[in-house]
Design a protein that fits this description.
heterodimer, A: 234 residues, mainly alpha, MetI-like fold, B: 238 residues, alpha/beta, Rossmann fold, 6-stranded mixed beta sheet, 3-stranded antiparallel beta sheet, 9 helices, globular
Chain lengths: 234, 238
Amino acid sequence: MSDVPAAFASALALVFGLDGELGRIVLLSLRVSLSAVVIASAIGLPLGALLAVYRFPGRRVVIVAINSMMGLPPVVVGLVVYLMLSRSGPFGVFGLLFTPTAMIIAQSILLTPLIAALARQLVEDMWAEYEEQLRSLGAGPGRALWTLLWDGRFSLLTAVLAGFGRAIAEVGAVMIVGGNIDKVTRVMTTAIALETSKGDLALALGLGIILIALALAINATAFSINLVLRARAA
Amino acid sequence: MSAILPLRIDRVGYTAGGKNLVDGIDATLEAGSRTVILGPNGAGKSLTLRLCHGLIRPTSGTIVWRRPAAETRHRQAMVFQRPIMLRRSAAANIDYALALAGVPRRQRRERIEDALAQTRLSELADRPARVLSIGEQQRLALARVWALQVEIVFLDEPTASLDPGATRAVEAIVNAMDAAGTKIVMTTHDMGQARRMADEILFLHRGRLIERAPAEEFFAQPRTHQARAFVRGELLPD
């Protein structure tokens, strides 16, 4: 385990050396994962609320499907997106394969079921409490949905953060559709995988430390903002 | 705007799990009086209110307002046993109801202030509704109804979870609503409250309306043996 001190040393060197290469990798990681979280939340939160509120035939099947898709294997999602975007695939004409956009698409697909499933559970509990009152006040389905998402926004942030956690730590999908191209599609996780296979364990571990610190910082920030807003909100 | 009352409850029944929970209730609710639906637990009082308010559909019979059903939604309101408050301020909870009822923004502020004053909640206007005490929340639920200026309000055991002080406050507000011209329909299993609040009694037992009378008459001379037993404070056999 002599690698560990070396890993911290290389992490510090990377950070304080203000290595341009590292900066680019970190920024791309954030850009890809945050974009995916925004897209997946825009789809997953309303979808989860919809499943919580509406009763329709086949609802349970959809819920079970989405719940099981929470654990979608990233490599499989990556592979499917790869096939869709490859030159001979249906979306090949857009030339998106091996671009950050392809990585965002893959991660969005990966996160949407996770965020939707968590949101459904949260909103369903709220709906059980609100339903009679909202119907009594004459809230239509659309209004009820919006009220639940707004009133549940602090709890729903947990679902969004879970999505971010999965995205920033994910390697399989971004590796396949991004290709880990230096200066173009290399992100933290693919860089770690690469350095590990090259045998530079200290550098890989150093990158890992930065990755974890980054995830921690973002979660802590979101948590504090949430606390402040929750205290101030009605 | 012509009145939505009287409300005709025409042989209304509600069956669930093979049980007749509400069984052929026939009654007309007229404006201008306080109707108290009285009966032991499980008599079908809450269900009857929910059927009237349109939260559930009867499995037999019909609920008929004087106006088409679509026009009645924002002219009636309901107060639940446990107040349900949105995760926002007291004033915003009222504002939400007014917005749904289509009250223009300009008029809302005045109505909110008036309703909060009527329920003596003015100082708590900006407090989050869900940190208020249960008694304050129930008063806020009444303020919400007050601001809506409805024709009829259904109250489902509104004081069942309250202490005597909060109960007195709620009863005073309900009486003020009645004085302002809102039809009151309230359930209770509390004899004392029925005596204090009722102009008219509907006595339910096992899902059936077995007695209907002006309050003094009901308490002086109940006609059925179940009502006699209930008025004397005896436990009714199932």
